[in-house]
Amino acid sequence: MRQSVDRTPVWFMRQAGRYLPEYRALREGRDILELCRTPELAVEATMLPLRRMPVDAAILFSDIMVPVAAMGIDLRIDPGIGPVVPDPIRGNDEVWRLRTLDPQAEVPFVLETVRLLRKELSVPLIGFAGGPFTLASYLVEGGPSRNHERTKALMHADPETWSHLMFVLGTSMAAYLRAQVEAGAQAVQVFDSWAGALDPDDYLHFVLPATRELFGSLADLDVPLIHFGVGTGELLPLMRDAGATVVGVDWRVPLHEAWERVGYDVAVQGNLDPAVCLAPWEAVEKKALTVLRRAAGRPGHVFNLGHGVLPGTPPEILERLVDLVHERTEGSAGAWEEGP
After folding, report:
1. How far apart are CA 253 and CA 10, in angstroms?
2. Is residue 239 packed enough to be buried (19+ CB in 10 Å), middle (13-18) or exposed (0-12)?
3. Domain extents for the chain?
4. Residue-level pLDDT at 43
5. Which of 122, 123, 138, 339 has its CB surrounded by the most CB atoms within 10 Å?
6. pLDDT tens for each residue of 223-281
7. What distance in Å separates the CA atoms of residue 272 and residue 256, rounded to the nearest whole number?
8. Residue pair 140/154 in contact by the 8 Å Cβ criterion
């Protein structure tokens, strides 16, 4: 889904987050899950970056573990650590603890946030969910992992249990994303952030079927479907085959090479290294212009970082970055709707 527009659109993953002092004030004394479950607060968090800079999209403020918590899993999100699952999945008996998500009944606060945001926003709203592998890795490891060793061991040692887990997570996230679109989200992104921990063979065999089923079940919605992972340079052709209309690219692969891997009939999103945004503006400008030069004005480029905004990022850097992308691409191609 691509279409020529008057300038390259730009938004940032984690654009509502800890780098903003007003977000830190909103978050003070509150658990992140409390923010996510309180529509008025989630709306405010979503809107914060749009009051600072003219990004071309808002992304729903939430967390990929919110629907998982509603599926019968006891979890918490610890500051500086991330999701923690005290009783992790070790076999099929634990997988049966997972309920298939009923979004209307179990996460109505997310859908209410979407509806409220559509009344406030003048730019498109992006909804999102975690990818099946990434969610599974948290559930199996019990929290963040560098090597995902327990996850990979389960995958290979008990493929039946793994397939069951992928089915429940994939089906639930598809229902969750559909409900967000029906509530008003105008695009959705699947964050399979840790899929890059897999080699292509394992991704093809153990992850792609559930991911393809997820995207396939959303194809009738006629909204952009974005697929993103970190360290997925060797997986990009497979991610394209999963069925997304936009493939997110991290900073490790030059944008033009990544686009060749997925094919120019698919839109791409990315891919400035988020760590560069902690450097002086001259360095940020140079790297951003390199990304734009590699995009070469083709229709279908959405400018973004190669991962989320880092907490130490000066807000004014992102503000200047939005202006730079808009100014340098005025009158050029790039977007995410059907076109030549």
Report:
1. 19
2. buried
3. 21-329
4. 98
5. 138
6. 999 999 999 999 999 999 999 999 999 999 999 999 999 999 999 999 999 999 999 99
7. 13
8. yes
Instruction: Report the alpha-carbon distance of residue 62 to residue 69 in Å, rounded.
Output: 12
What pLDDT digit, counting tens, does each position of 54-105 carry? Answer: 999 999 999 999 999 999 999 999 988 999 999 999 999 899 889 999 999 9
Question: Mean pLDDT over residues 100-126, rounded?
Answer: 97
pLDDT of 316 over the 60 cut: yes
Burial (CB count <10 Å: 0-12, 13-18, 19+), residue 29? exposed
Choose the CATH number for 21-329 among 3.60.10.10, 3.30.70.260, 3.20.20.210, 3.30.1490.20. Answer: 3.20.20.210
Catalytic pick among 18, 90, 212, 294: 18
Q: Which of 7, 27, 240, 261 is catalytic?
A: 27
- Strand 58-59: give its sheet, edge to edge: 58-59, 125-130, 187-191, 225-228, 246-248, 267-272, 301-305
Cis amide leading into 271 (omega within 30): yes
Catalytic member of 2, 7, 14, 240:
14
What pLDDT, in 10s, does the model give residues 27-56? Answer: 999 999 999 999 999 999 999 999 999 999
Residue 159: what residue type?
A: P
Q: Which of these is catalytic: 19, 37, 56, 138?
A: 138
- Is 27 considered catalytic here? yes
What does the pLDDT read at residue 5?
Answer: 75
Confidence (pTM): 0.94
Q: Is the pLDDT of residue 154 over 80?
A: yes
Over its C-alpha atoms, the chain yields an Rg (Å, rounded) of 19
DSSP string, 207-227: IHHHHHHHHHHHGGG-S-EEE
Residue 97 has what pLDDT?
A: 84
Buried b or exposed e, range 297-335, using 16+ CB within 10 angstroms: ebbbbbbbbbbbbbeebebebbebbbebbbebbeebbbb
Active site residue 138: yes
Q: Please state, in angstroms and rounded to a whole number, the distance separating the CA atoms of residues 273 and 291.
A: 10
Maximum pairwise Cα distance, the chain: 57
